[in-house]
Amino acid sequence: MNGRLWAKRILVLAFWLGVWALLAGLVERELLLPGPWEVAKRLFALTATWGFWHITLVSLGRILLGAALGTALGVALAIGTSRFAFLRTVLSPVLSVIKAVPVASFILLVLIWVGRDILPCVIVVLMVAPVVWSSVSAGIRTTDRELLELARVYRFSPWRTLKRVYAPSVGPYFLAACHTCLGLAWKSGVAAEVLTVPVRSIGRELFEAKLYLESVDLFAWTVVVVLCSTALEKILSAAVTGLGRRPAWGGERP
Amino acid sequence: MIWFENVRLSYGDKVVFPGESLHIAPGERVALMGPSGSGKTSLLRMAAGLTKPTSGRVQVNARRLAYAFQEPRLMPWRTAAENVNVVLSDQPATMPEARRWLAAVGLSEAADKFPAELSGGMKQRLELARALAYDGDLLLLDEPTKELDAETKRVIMLLLREHVKGRTLLMATHDMAEATVLAERIYVIDRDGILPAQMQ
Description:
heterodimer, A: 254 residues, 83% helix, 0% strand, globular, B: 200 residues, alpha/beta, six-stranded mixed beta sheet, three-stranded antiparallel beta sheet, 6 helices, 9 strands
């Protein structure tokens, strides 16, 4: 990335921090709108504690585990429903229902059946799986039938067919789904934590900050959520770009 | 090796074969000729198990079947050498063998190129190299030299003549010279069915 772009980004960030500081100065009440300086101070104070890192890592781990399980489930469902028509007929309404039901309804419903500590993970699975399912199914549908015939004639093993025919066709769809799902997983996971307040979670910190009218804490933890989301997205983007360039995932060909 | 028994094939209202029979013995080399749309490719596809007859029976007793499709079926994300190697072990160990087959069809320079970088004729030679590399006891060739210029066609014909020996061959072609060089029996497919042609 060149220096000019960085300078542009820093200027944009400075502009919005300025707007925030100006509004906070106009409001003059920390309870309603704390300024960026107070929030930054609180954030630095938080990062100096072991508890902050513990909470952040537990939340991150819980959400990433849910995202991984949701992705695996979505892929399995896509393969199953593409292979067996009856499974597609049976499961298609489930996909429509899951897509239509609001996250909050899911959280309250699932809370009846599972403990609050694993609920955010379950919610993330429910949010991620349908997206991966739809996307990978679309990839499977667009796989070149002629290449599948080639695989049949030359008696490719299922593994070779998967690796050499399906993966390059489905790869771009899968990677796009992963990209979409990370943001979705993070948002729905934190929302589930806020509503179920599991021990050691960012959601609990947000909820308690709101409950005790600790606006500075609320803003500081929200900044943590934004920073984590941005960092995860950057890491995933780099991975997706790297994988997407590989021929096995449908890239690097004229 | 291949039995077509009272094979009827129709696509909707269009009847391709009303009920044809043909037997090809092991090691026999047979060419199918006929106008476009007469059903040559359909017969090859039925032999490969890719198209099911509407009625009748197709039985193929082949250990390994290699098929050079009329429209080359190449993986766009794999190089020419990798496209051949995929029917070998698909491991780096057989890449030299894949390259040898490419050299045999005059494509050594294009071994590391992707299909999109190859001309129509080069793609067809790549398709042939892959079919020959597979070492099938049954070889299905669908218009194998259609896209080739005269000189390349001569070289490929010589190569094919050498490599079809001892194998069962079923090929579709429009070219009588190609049919007589490679096949022992020629059948003509027309509206009267599959009829043996008079060989000189």
